[in-house]
Amino acid sequence: MSAADNIATILSSGARLTVPLAFAACGEYVAQRAGTLNISVEAMMLGAAFGSIAVASATGSATIGLAAGALVGVAVAFVHGNLSHRVQINTFVVGLVLNALVLGLTSYLITVSTFTGHQVWQVSVPVLRDIPIVGPMLFVQRWPVYLLLAVIPLTWWLVQRSRWGLELRAVGENPQAADVSGIHVNLRRRQALLWCGLLAGLGGAYLAVGEVGSFNQNMTAGRGYLVIAAVIFGAWRLGRTLVGCVVFGLADAMRLALPALGVTMNSQLLIAAPYLLALLAMLVFATAHREPRALAQPFQRGTT
């Protein structure tokens, strides 16, 4: 293969690996702007990946499986929101417990279940797909990739231009003042978590029925934590957050491509590379930018 072919392959792979991160990051961005540091995004993605394959296998439709995966993400978000905002359990504890619970449950279920592989259909745009390098990356993708292109501006508009988004940002910055002005703080935070669950569910489901076509134990492999790192890397701005997703996606693509290109490196180091990059990004950007003032701070008054 020529250098151009290698670059095209890496970019195309990077684009595919970015998609589940970008879906989930759009949701995590909303949750954090509302003041909830959603650790359970890993559980949302992993549960959705399993649910999507299970439903796709049962129905024979990868698209129905994708929708089911999104609903699994919403279900995890519903549990998280009620435990942390109604029962007032520490949100970090809830997130970690949900991550462990979903990992254990899916690991058990995959050993006692047999599923057939399914993938959503691929869109290949004539003529444009033949453009060197960028053609395969942009114009030969599975259809949820183009759904993502609609989700991104919708998420930005919801947070930055809608009344709901204004209240959401107020809740994340000063929940006491928001409460005095008549905003139900914990209700807004639960709504933000549900949006996060929907998009993280789409991300996890895409990983299963879009990228791989099957489910493997611990399939997300910490991608939820990469999503959290991307939001911090992006300084709680959607555009920068998505740039972080692209960086992590390309790093993962490079990790997969280097052995095929004849580059010999320690396998454990290759596997750890995207996560080391995420850790470095968090260390640098978490101190360089200000997070929402009420991020990860519980609020009790107004809980119903």
From TrEMBL:
<feature type="transmembrane region" description="Helical">
    <location>
        <begin position="48"/>
        <end position="79"/>
    </location>
</feature>
<feature type="transmembrane region" description="Helical">
    <location>
        <begin position="221"/>
        <end position="238"/>
    </location>
</feature>
<feature type="transmembrane region" description="Helical">
    <location>
        <begin position="192"/>
        <end position="209"/>
    </location>
</feature>
<feature type="transmembrane region" description="Helical">
    <location>
        <begin position="91"/>
        <end position="110"/>
    </location>
</feature>
<keyword id="KW-0472">Membrane</keyword>
<keyword id="KW-0812">Transmembrane</keyword>
<keyword id="KW-1003">Cell membrane</keyword>
<dbReference type="GO" id="GO:0005886">
    <property type="term" value="C:plasma membrane"/>
</dbReference>
<dbReference type="InterPro" id="IPR001851">
    <property type="entry name" value="ABC_transp_permease"/>
</dbReference>
<dbReference type="Pfam" id="PF02653">
    <property type="entry name" value="BPD_transp_2"/>
</dbReference>
<dbReference type="GO" id="GO:0022857">
    <property type="term" value="F:transmembrane transporter activity"/>
</dbReference>
<feature type="transmembrane region" description="Helical">
    <location>
        <begin position="245"/>
        <end position="263"/>
    </location>
</feature>
<feature type="transmembrane region" description="Helical">
    <location>
        <begin position="143"/>
        <end position="159"/>
    </location>
</feature>
<feature type="transmembrane region" description="Helical">
    <location>
        <begin position="269"/>
        <end position="288"/>
    </location>
</feature>
<keyword id="KW-1133">Transmembrane helix</keyword>
<protein>
    <submittedName>
        <fullName>ABC transporter permease</fullName>
    </submittedName>
</protein>
